[in-house]
Every structure is written in structure tokens, then in C-alpha cells.
């Protein structure tokens, strides 16, 4: 198997970027810290490769199927490296790799449909689809492989080439993935570049990039959109979330407690569409708090390579500081930690799984995206009050409603201001569905056929009817 150093990026040996194991807080490897000026040649090569890649749909299908096979073959190495640099339990890393292979297969077999327009005029009008050119895919550290594939699989299937930039916190597994895929894809169809800022900003602003697809925070998303506007590149932005779970008064607390807990704490809470706030009827609020707190107190927290670990560390020191800050702010103004509430002693970026109660509704841990293992549970007295609070932030990625009467729960879910609403579960997506945020949580659509068409532009051909002779 090729090593990460096989990634094809031109230029002399660059400066190096230290990569920290979040379970120890110590560097364990390094990646190239590429200079922004190197992007000119990278993008130029991606554009040259585009001309051949876009012209043969059958070859693209074959290559993407082979790419899925290659990912599965390299699954052990990819999963272990992903856990080492990201921190998540190894089982979750294996699931991320499996999802990546499945996504490649899904898009390999998805093709745009030509559409005939019949409007009564004496012409045949046909809508065909053309690729855009080089695509910039800028990926965060929480799901570096899965989110990369969510961007490059539809882009490649549509006939585009991709320049992929992972987070400087998690560059290694992405570089290894690039090396694995280089064995089955043509040269320069997918190029991985790693480095600190301003590398990502320069990539988003590069005049040779025709589509920028980004996942990350709302402020950075705004900056990416502004940078891409200079060249009028298309943007797809999947931004922050502060998903609310609304529990109805007929909910079976014991029956849903495990699902609700893991909807909030999977990947140490570092999921854009995780449950980040729970609204429970005042009558059962204490029962909900205790059910979640009992799980938080007893769940196994540790190094992701330990097979007994269910929750790993926060990925990086700045994010750990953010989690500590919002938790301290809440406790300082009257909140109580029913479980956790502090950083764990010892090495690494570990924070105790935390359930907060008595939280003021205007506390940042409620109104902002905490992105860590902290969950506030807030009481409500009537459903309108709960929905007003659930919809009362600038975020609109996802939300969920939990109850026994499914018709009633669906009617309540229909009132959530978000892109995806779940009933009695949360943060589960199929490959064939659209994924898009409302309000500040995103621009554009990913997933399913919508993700494919987001990487294409319509091309209309008008041909007159055959004249009678």
C-alpha cells in the first residue's frame, strides 16, 4: 500500500505540520505544511486532468467502484490512523471508512438524466448536464474521511476533479486515503493538500476553482463564501448546528434514553447534527435528567484504540478550551451538573460527559454550538414555549421530536425550523436523501441526487424539427 507521502503535490519539501494524538495531548506524527502559492500548480493540474475525466462516464463509474474496493482493502490502516489523530473509538472509525466506501459505490452508479422539454414550439429542446471543473473540498476534523467522501464522491461522479484540504488537526488519514485512491484514479483527479491557514482561504479564493464545498463553523463559512465570490465560484456550505430534541408529554423516558444519549454524545458530541439541547416537559424533566446523567456517569471514556472505550477525547486543545468555557459559564450563573461538568485529570483532551440542569435559557451552552460532550436539559410548561425556544437560534440544521403518538410527533416536527427532522431518533442519514440546513446552518444541498446535480450545470440544446421535403 502507498504511504501518505505518495500524495502528488509539486514543489520542494515543505515545512512540517505536527499532528497531536488527542488521547495523549502529544505529537505523534507530521504532515506537509504546504505553502499557499503551491496551489496554482495543483489547480492547474486538476484542470488539465478534468478534460479527460469528464469525457468518459463509463470509465468514471469503473474507477469509483474500484475506489470503493480500495478503501475497504485499506480499511484497517485507515481506521486506526483516523482514531489516532481524531480520537474517536475504533468502532466509529471503522464505520466511517465503511460509509466512505458505500458512498463511492452509490455515486458511481448515479448519473444525471437528460430531460426533453415539450412546450409546443417546432424545436426539440433537451436539457443535458455538464461538469463544472476543479472543485475545492474543505473538510473539518470531526469526520475527516466521511465528510471528505461526501464532497469528492459526487464531484468526481459528476465529472469534476477535486482538490481536497483536510483540517490541520486531522491530515494523516486523509493523506493516506488520497494515496489509496491514487492507485485507482487517474493522475490529478483527486489531490490532497495539507497545511495551516491561509491555505484553505487561498484555495477557496483561487480563480481556477469552480465550486467550493465546505463544512465548518458559521463564521468561517461566511469567509469562504466571500472568498469564492471573487471568482463567482459556486458554494455549498454545511455549517454549524444547535439541534434541539423536543420531548412530548407521552414520551417513554426509559425507552428512548439510550437513543437520546447517543444522539448527543456520539463522537464525543463532535457532530454538527448531534442533539445539543433537550426540551422536556416540566413534569418529567427530573426523570429525563437522571436517565441521561446515569448514562453519562457510567459510560467508558478513554483512548479510542481501547476496545472498551465508548467516548474518546475532544479532538484538539482549542475545542477543549471552548467546551470548558461554555460549561463554566453555565455553572457560574446557576446551572448544575447532574453528571460531569469538568475536564478529566491526566493526559489528553478528555472532558467528562456532562448533563446540565437548571441552565438559564440565554446561556451560551444553550444558544451557541458547544460541539463537545455537554448537554443542557431544559424544562418547558407548554409545547408552544418549547418550539419557540427550539427555533429561537440562528441555527437550523436538524431537530427531533420524541413521543409515543407518532402522528402527533410528526405534526410537531413539521413546526421545527430546520433542514431535517427526525421522530424518536436523531442524526441518521441515508445516502439517497438530501442534507441541507436552514437559516445560518447552510447554503446548497448535499447527499443523494441533489448532491450530484449540485456539481453539474445545465446545458440546453435546441434543434429544429426536421423540415418536410
UniProtKB/TrEMBL annotation:
<keyword id="KW-0560">Oxidoreductase</keyword>
<feature type="region of interest" description="Disordered">
    <location>
        <begin position="1"/>
        <end position="35"/>
    </location>
</feature>
<dbReference type="InterPro" id="IPR016161">
    <property type="entry name" value="Ald_DH/histidinol_DH"/>
</dbReference>
<comment type="similarity">
    <text>Belongs to the aldehyde dehydrogenase family.</text>
</comment>
<dbReference type="Pfam" id="PF00171">
    <property type="entry name" value="Aldedh"/>
</dbReference>
<feature type="active site">
    <location>
        <position position="238"/>
    </location>
</feature>
<dbReference type="InterPro" id="IPR016162">
    <property type="entry name" value="Ald_DH_N"/>
</dbReference>
<dbReference type="InterPro" id="IPR029510">
    <property type="entry name" value="Ald_DH_CS_GLU"/>
</dbReference>
<dbReference type="InterPro" id="IPR016160">
    <property type="entry name" value="Ald_DH_CS_CYS"/>
</dbReference>
<dbReference type="InterPro" id="IPR016163">
    <property type="entry name" value="Ald_DH_C"/>
</dbReference>
<dbReference type="InterPro" id="IPR015590">
    <property type="entry name" value="Aldehyde_DH_dom"/>
</dbReference>
<feature type="domain" description="Aldehyde dehydrogenase">
    <location>
        <begin position="16"/>
        <end position="452"/>
    </location>
</feature>
<protein>
    <submittedName>
        <fullName>Aldehyde dehydrogenase family protein</fullName>
    </submittedName>
</protein>
Amino acid at each position: 500500500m502507498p504511504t501518505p507521502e505518495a500524495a502528488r503535490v509539486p514543489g520542494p519539501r515543505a515545512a512540517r505540520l505536527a499532528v497531536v494524538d488527542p488521547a495523549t495531548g502529544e505529537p505523534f506524527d507530521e504532515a506537509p505544511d504546504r505553502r499557499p502559492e503551491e496551489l496554482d500548480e495543483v489547480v492547474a493540474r486538476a484542470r488539465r486532468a478534468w478534460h479527460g475525466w469528464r469525457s468518459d462516464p463509463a470509465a468514471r463509474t469503473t474507477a469509483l467502484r474500484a475506489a470503493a474496493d480500495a478503501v475497504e482493502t485499506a480499511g484497517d490502516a485507515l481506521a486506526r490512523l483516523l482514531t489516532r489523530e481524531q480520537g474517536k473509538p475504533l468502532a466509529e472509525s471503522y464505520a466511517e471508512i465503511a460509509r466512505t466506501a458505500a458512498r463511492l459505490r452509490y455515486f458511481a452508479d448515479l448519473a444525471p438524466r437528460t430531460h426533453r422539454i415539450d412546450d409546443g414550439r417546432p424545436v426539440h429542446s433537451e436539457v443535458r448536464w455538464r461538469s463544472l471543473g476543479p472543485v475545492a473540498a474543505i473538510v473539518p476534523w470531526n469526520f475527516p474521511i466521511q465528510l471528505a467522501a461526501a464532497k469528492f464522491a459526487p464531484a468526481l461522479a459528476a465529472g469534476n476533479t477535486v482538490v481536497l484540504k483536510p483540517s490541520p488537526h486531522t491530515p494523516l488519514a486523509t493523506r493516506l486515503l488520497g494515496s489509496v485512491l491514487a492507485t485507482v484514479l487517474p493522475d490529478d483527479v483527486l489531490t490532497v493538500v495539507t497545511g495551516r491557514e491561509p491555505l484553505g482561504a487561498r484555495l477557496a479564493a483561487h480563480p481556477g476553482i469552480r465550486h467550493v464545498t465546505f463544512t465548518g463553523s458559521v463564521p468561517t463559512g461566511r469567509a469562504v463564501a466571500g472568498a469564492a465570490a471573487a471568482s463567482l465560484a459556486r458554494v455549498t456550505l454545511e455549517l454549524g448546528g444547535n439541534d434541539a430534541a423536543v420531548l412530548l408529554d407521552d414520551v417513554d423516558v426509559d425507552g428512548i434514553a439510550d437513543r437520546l444519549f447517543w444522539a448527543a454524545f456520539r463522537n464525543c458530541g463532535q457532530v454538527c447534527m448531534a442533539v445539543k439541547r433537550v426540551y422536556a416537559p416540566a413534569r418529567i424533566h427530573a426523570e429525563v435528567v437522571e436517565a441521561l446523567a446515569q448514562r453519562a456517569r457510567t459510560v467508558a471514556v478513554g483512548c479510542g484504540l481501547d476496545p472498551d472505550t465508548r467516548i474518546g477525547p475532544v479532538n484538539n486543545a482549542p475545542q477543549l478550551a471552548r467546551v470548558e468555557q461554555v460549561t463554566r459559564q453555565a455553572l457560574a450563573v446557576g446551572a448544575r451538573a447532574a453528571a460531569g461538568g469538568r475536564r478529566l485529570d491526566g493526559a489528553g483532551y478528555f472532558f467528562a460527559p456532562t448533563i446540565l440542569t437548571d441552565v438559564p435559557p440565554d446561556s451560551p451552552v444553550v444558544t451557541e454550538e458547544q460541539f463537545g460532550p455537554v448537554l443542557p436539559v431544559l424544562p418547558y410548561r407548554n409545547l408552544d414555549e418549547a418550539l419557540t425556544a427550539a427555533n429561537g437560534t440562528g441555527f437550523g440544521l436538524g431537530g427531533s421530536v420524541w413521543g409515543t403518538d407518532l402522528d402527533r410527533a410528526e405534526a410537531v416536527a413539521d413546526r421545527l425550523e430546520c433542514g431535517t427532522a427526525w421522530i424518536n431518533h436523531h442524526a441518521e442519514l441515508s445516502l439517497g436523501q438530501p442534507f441541507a440546513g436552514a437559516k445560518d446552518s447552510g447554503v446548497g444541498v448535499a447527499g443523494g441526487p441533489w448532491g450530484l446535480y449540485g456539481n453539474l450545470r445545465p446545458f440546453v440544446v435546441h434543434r429544429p424539427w426536421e423540415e418536410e421535403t
